[in-house]
Amino acid sequence: LMTIASRPVLYGEPVIDRGLEEWSREWISADLDDVDFRITITSGAVDAVERLLAQALMRDDAVALEDPCFLASIHTVRLGGYRAVPVPVDAEGMTVDGLRSALEAGVRAVICTPRAQNPTGASLTASRAAELRAVLADHPYVLIIEDDHFSMLSQRHYESLIGPAHRRFALVRSVSKFLGPDMCLAIAATDVETAERLAMRLSPGTTWVSHLLQRLALTQLTDEAVMAEVAAAAAHYAERNSAFAARLRADGIDATPSDGMSLWVEFPQPARTIADRLMRRGWLARTGDDFALDEKAEPSHHLRLTVHDLSDGEAESLVADLVAAGR
């Protein structure tokens, strides 16, 4: 801290730390190598999405969201006064027909999770991403927001909806998943016009992200020991999820290990029934109903289970209770 706080940053200076900007550009360029972009630093991914929507949309404009959807995205869209248009998600990510229907309905923005979609764990495949880019090619001014929240922890290759000719886009990568939730910082790579609009909302000294926080993030991102711990954490999440899914399959519950911090498990019975029975046995689990955009949708048969922090004994107990709850 003494090193990063050696010189105060004053009014009128650049809002982005030069070192962090250079590191971010190199990191993002590996995935958006054929796209011209600018770097903006925001106070986390939710802050970035809120600002991106506010600079491009008006109240009651339509936004395409994955269904089931990350709770923060649902809340951000609803609190902003926008209309959520659901796009179904399958094992390969957003569906092509779903996105096409949303665009025909007049959405002005699309929020997509390219990897480790929450809650399903789905990641875009190369073929699906290419199909979605083809659909979006006729809508170059629809704002694409990719929330790549699991980035450094993901076991999947990054695939994107952002084509080389698309005019309005943002790839958002928060550091909270791998450096900790208290590191309220996200890197947004956007087109030039969007970057300029975001800059107007991140004025020097008032709404910028603290340079101390930026320098602290950069110090960790360039530290070999820290990056080794991040890699170990990524392997841990993948191994624990895979092991738990194998336990479920061994006891007759179909489960496929996916990317992310949780498992998305389907049951023959409504998920609320399973969750209520688990609660009586001391477990808390979110049902798919919590992530549905349509409050009148049919009852979900999926549970989102976060199991990576369970001991082997606790994991065995949970599997046994899931089997009992499903009878």
Characterise the protein shown here.
The radius of gyration is 21 Å and the shape is globular. It has 2 domains: 18-222, Type I PLP-dependent aspartate aminotransferase-like (Major domain) (Aspartate Aminotransferase, domain 2, 3-Layer(aba) Sandwich); 225-325, Aspartate Aminotransferase, domain 1, CATH 3.90.1150.10. The chain has an 8-stranded mixed sheet with strand order 1-8-7-6-5-2-3-4, sandwiched between helices. The protein has a 3-stranded antiparallel sheet with strand order 9-11-10, covered by helices on one side. 41% of the residues are buried. The longest helix has 27 residues, at 224-250. With 327 residues, it is α/β, with parallel strands linked by helices. The chain is 39% helix and 16% strand. The N and C termini lie far apart (55 Å). It contains 11 helices and 11 strands.
Which secondary structure elements does this structure contain, and how are they paired or packed?
Layout lengths: L17 H12 L8 E5 L2 H12 L5 E6 L3 H9 L3 E8 L2 E2 L1 H9 L4 E4 L13 H11 L6 E5 L21 E6 L1 H4 L6 E5 L1 H9 L10 H11 L2 H27 L12 E4 L4 H10 L5 E2 L14 E4 L6 H14 L2
Parallel strand pairs: 2-3, 2-5, 5-6, 6-7
Antiparallel strand pairs: 1-8, 3-4, 7-8, 9-11, 10-11
